[in-house]
Amino acid sequence: MRPAEMETQVRDHLARGDHREAAAAALRGLGPQVLGYLESLVLDPDDARDVFQAFAEELWRWLPTWRGEGSLRAWSYRLAWHAAARFQRGAWRRRRERMRTTLASRIAASVATESRAGGRRDRLRRLRQALDPEERTLLVLRLDRELPWEEVALVLSGDGAPLEPAALRKRFERLKGKLARMARDQGLVDEEG
Amino acid sequence: MARRSARRQPTEAGPPPASPGAVSRLLDELARAPPADLDAAWEGVLRRGERVGRFEITCEVGRGGFGLVYEARDVELSRPVAFKVLRPARAGDPAAAESLRREAEAAGQLNHANIVTLHDVGTHRGRPYLIMELLRGETLASRLARGPLPPREALDVAVQVARALAHAHGAGVLHRDLKPSNVFLCRGGVAKVLDFGLARVLGGGSPAGGTPGYMAPEERRREPASARSDVFSAAVMLHESLAGRRPWPDPPDGEPEAEPGPPAPLDVPGVPAALRRLVAGALSADPAVRPRDGQAWLDGLLAARGAPGAGRRAWLAAAAVGAAALAAAALLALRSRPAAGGAPVTVAVADFENATDEKDLSGLSGLLITSLEQSRHLRVLTRSRMLDLAQQAGGAPVERIDERLGREASRRAGARALLLATVRRFDRVYAVELHAIDPVADAYLFTLKEQGTGKGSIPGIIDRLGEATRRALREKAAEVEAARVEVAQAVTGSLEAYQHYFAGVQCIDGLGPVSSCVDHFRAALRADPTFALAHYMIAYTSEFRRAPPGEAQAAIEAALQHIGRAPAKERELILAWSAHVRGKDEEAVATYRRLLERFPADGHAAYVAGDLLHHKGDFAGALPLFERALELGAQIPVLRAHVVEALARLGRAEEGVRRARAWTEAQPDATNQRVLAEALALGGQFQGAVTAARRAVDAGGGAEAQLKLSDLLALAGRYREAEAAARRLAGTDQPPATREMARVRLATALTYQGRRREARGELDAIRGGETVLRGIGAVVWLLGGGPRAVDEALRESERLEEPVRRRAAAVVGIYLALAGQPARARELVQRAGAESDEGWQAVRAFLDGEAEKGLAAARALEVKSGGAPAFVAGMLLAGAGRDREAVEAFRRFQASPSEAVLRCSCYPQSLYHAARSLMRLGDRAGARAELDRLLTAWDRADPDLHLLAEAKALRRSL
User: Quick one: pLDDT at residue B709?
Assistant: First the structure.
């Protein structure tokens, strides 16, 4: 089913007050996409499943409050992003993540212990690990999922002032520059290109 | 396609990559997140038919935060059971496994019809599992998804949950994660509480989880949970069951705030008021206000269900039982508590029992508190905090904290230890015996004894007891050594001085007249002139009595001179007050904030800091400090009134009304009714305010409530009633101070009616002719008499002390400017050195032709200090022919409760001048209405009253 059709179906269910069917349709339609995104965001597949289950519960619960102003897709990614953030803040999770909480320590770890060893897939994995969750979200949603800048900004906005799409674009460009440098260090691209 | 074109877009900024093509490909690879197989996400641990020991898996029935639940069959006993197992992703997590182990441990202790039964515990493929009673039905969460429960049903479920909690709390087990998905509604109407998944034996450490929407504020702050935290969660569930929504909205994408505002009112038809009050109390941010535990909550619910109004009694009765059941857990809790480095241990100290006949040994608890306060491992409740808590428990002000009150107060504060001590004398030997008990569990902890020869040995005895207590409460010896104090050095070596000081503090805490309390501090200084704290108290109290000028300055300087003799906390207090006396309130507030960081339970420091800002008009700064003081339970009579005033000045009068209503619903006593009256008046709802004030009088609010009622009747334009109320109070056998205040009210009620002569008589009668209507009030009142009174007002202003004299001169200047004598006004203000007065500056800008600047300044003042500047703005605008704006300003003034002595003179004038403006605008009906109101109020006015003839003439012309 195409995304637009799925969204229409969800709206119809909601309009009829059938929240269960609406949530089921949304999860059927968007679930695989969101889970894929979560897997690339939280990196550990088991953790991703936990977050996805939390996301599914949230969607179930809050879908009736979706006012249909933005796209259901962006709204769902936003729920997933916040579910992942809550998961990362969780007490037991923090214990495990204690050594990996700062970008600096992650980069240091990947540079110091793994240098240029390992195959291309390993090096890509390390590169992905060296990104912070917002950067991973930015990459996946913008490049792979092709969300418009406004929707990416909506997903990543906290509770305060919404993010400006223009600021996000700048950030994206900086991220590209940083990745280029890191990729060179990892030997993923040649010095000359 | 969009995808391709997006990839080919050239970079717009940032350093050029080594090769755009290679980096773009890399980005694509990094960004690739193919859709995932949903089945994987839902994959279970066990499959149908799989055998685990004697249990055979039938099907998966649910998932919780910590595990999966299957229905299984116990093949030996041939009964269905629930089989709960850790998820694969969590199985390797030691914390989760530990949590499950604890669940088993805790739940294994519980055997109750409203708690799910645990049959067995084991491990399978390295994963722990629990075998529990299998329930048929649905969770409360799924039931609530279809809408709220009928009140009777909701209450029934709540009662069953409360029974479960009462049982668990009685066994020393907390739930810590009570929420609708953890309450199962079985077929047949029985409710069972599930998932004591976070429960530990009381005191096991900090919480690791909980569900934000149901967590008590202290848990969200990661402070230790108590039985009261479970009561909070149970109350949230009951609110949700009744109203269909939780008392605080839960944002879909964030955690709820750690400091939620007041809960949404429980406006559900059919819910008795007693139940609403009970729920509001249980939802209080201050744990001390909530029912103490599951039993107290259950008693409250039963009372609310049975006889309306009986709730409170049952609640108090419940406070006496229940605690004993926790005895076993208490020692365990204290012993298992982490040593220094963990959360501070809250300790309370009751007043010492003095078994000698020497009066100067009565204040020793204060010295012990000082000694203990040096510890960073302990959080020692101040004596004022103990008095506050004792008062909350008993409702009446308390003078001495004996053992009974000490237990009640320390229980309310959740203290882990209460110290009870007795001082005895045998010939020349003085001995202090100290018992420590756990006030919550009513369990004995330890006993210490110290003795010495001669009275001079007592400060040393206190030092030794303080250190031994700290060690007994598991503070490391090195830390005790590093942060110790000798009270003789840090406070005073003279017990006589200390006894006087302590009596003074007791006097102030007991709300005795401040001027007589100060005598105790003077006596203390006679015994020890270097006693810094006594100097400080004289300086501190100087603002609350009519101290001679310069006294505060001298006293605070003396305190500073001996500041080395003050302990850490008091040093900060002295520095803060010294800054205030020097007019540096920002510095004072910063010092109080520092103090609060180190001694976070000091609600009075939070209040004083807020109060300084409040009186400077910094309501935004004051409010959070007041909230903090409220949260710490500071029983300062004006605190709640300050909160609603600050809210109103910040343009949030309605919120003030809501808060005040919530307080009143939780506890409909006279103080709260008076605060509600105040809030309504600040919101311009004068008639509603009168009703609330009457309730305050009916609730036994005494003279203060009657004075307030008189004020509000006048605000509501019911002058005769205001006059009668004040007259009743002025003629009773009240203390002279009350009668004087009643006479002032009488005078204002008469002034509103234009009966200034009678009003003057009342004022002059007070204290044999010397008016108590002093300062600005007197000047404004006199000016209300019209131009003839200017000279007298000036003479009155000359009698005042700085800086009030300058303020008064500015007021006369403003009056003259409004009365069309700008030159005289300027000259007078200049001569008095009052040009920086904010009110005058607004008027002067207007006189200088900068009307907008002046009006803006007046408006800012109006926000800061209430309605009177609106009257001035109205007069200026009317004088400038800007009648429409003038009428608006007058209306603002009329709708706001400015100080009575100002308002009673200005209000009638505002009616007259508004009528003139309306007439010029062609609104003759509006003008007539204003004048009719004025002339009705003035129907018995003095015949020669200023403006009376003009008002009558104007009315005739209309």
Answer: 92
Calculate mean pLDDT across residues B77-81: 76
Residues forming beta bridges with residue B389, ordered by sequence position: none
How big is chain B, counted in residues? 958
Q: What is the mean pLDDT of residues B254-270?
A: 71
Ordered DSSP codes for B231-247: HHHHHHHHHHHHHSS-S
Nearest to B22 among A53, A177, A193 (CB): A193
Burial of B673 (0-12, 13-18, 19+ CB in 10 A): buried
> Could you identify the residue written with the tokens 């700048």?
A170
Among A86-90, B535-539, B712-716, which is the least confidently predicted range? Answer: A86-90
Is B823 at the interface with chain A, CB within 8 A?
no
Q: Who's near A115: CB < 8 A, 6+ residues apart?
A: none
Distance, in angstroms, between A167 CA and closest chain B CA? 12
What tokens were used for A139?
Answer: 């990459």
Residues of B in Cβ contact (< 8 Å) with A119? none
On whether the CB atoms of residues B793 and B812 are closer than 8 A, the answer is yes
Chain A touched by B745 (CB under 8 Å): no
- Contact pairs from chain A to chain B, CB under 8 Å: 137
Q: pTM for this structure? A: 0.48
- Cβ–Cβ < 8 Å for B84, B130: yes
CB contact under 8 A, A35 and B41: yes
Report, as an integer, the average pLDDT of B932-951.
Answer: 89
CA pair distance B561, B556, nearest whole angstrom: 8
Cβ of A58 and B208 within 8 Å?
Answer: no
Which position has the token pair 């800061």? B864
**B395 and chain A in contact, CB less than 8 A:** no
Side-chain-side CA neighbours of A24 within 13 Å: the count stands at: 5
Nearest chain A Cα distance for residue B32, angstroms: 6
CB atoms within 10 A of CB B11: 16
Query: What is the SS3 assignment for B633?
Result: coil
Pairing assessment for the beta strands B353-354 and B417-426 based on DSSP bridges: parallel
Between the alpha carbon of residue B92 and those of residues A44, A46, A85, A93, B127, the distances in Å are: 13, 11, 22, 12, 8
Are residues A91 and B209, on separate chains, in Cβ contact within 8 Å?
A: yes
Q: Do A140 and B31 touch (CB under 8 A)?
A: yes
Q: Which 99-118 residues of chain A touch chain B by CB within 8 A?
A: none
Cα–Cα distances (Å) from B152 to A68, A168, B113, B155, B270, in that order, read: 37, 53, 20, 5, 9
Residues in chain A: 193
CA angle A165, A167, A170 (to 5 degrees): 110
- The answer to which of A85-94, B296-305, B654-663, B845-854 has the lowest mean pLDDT is A85-94
What is the sign, positive or negative, of the torsion defined by CA atoms of B730, B732, B734, B735?
Answer: positive
Question: Residues of B492-510 as b/e, b for ≥16 C-beta within 10 angstroms?
Answer: bbbbbbbbbbbbbbbbbbe
- Residue from A20, A30, A39, A92 whose CB has the most chain B CBs within 10 Å, to mutate: A92
pLDDT over 70 (residue B453): yes
CB contact residues (below 8 A), chain A span 125-144, against chain B: 127-128, 131, 139-140, 142-144
- Kindly list the residues from chain B whose CB atom is less than 8 angstroms away from the CB atom of residue A142: 31
- Interior/surface letters A25-50, b for 16+ CB within 10 angstroms, e for the rest: bbbebbbbbbbbbbbbbbbeeebbbb
Q: What's the mean pLDDT when you consider all of chain B?
A: 78
Rg (CA), chain B: 34
Chain B residues in contact with A96 (beta carbon < 8 A): 93
Query: In the numeric block, which tokens belong to residue B718?
Result: 């019911």
Q: Name residues 234-263 of chain B within 8 A of A (Cβ).
A: 251-255
Predicted local distance difference test score (pLDDT) of residue B42 = 52
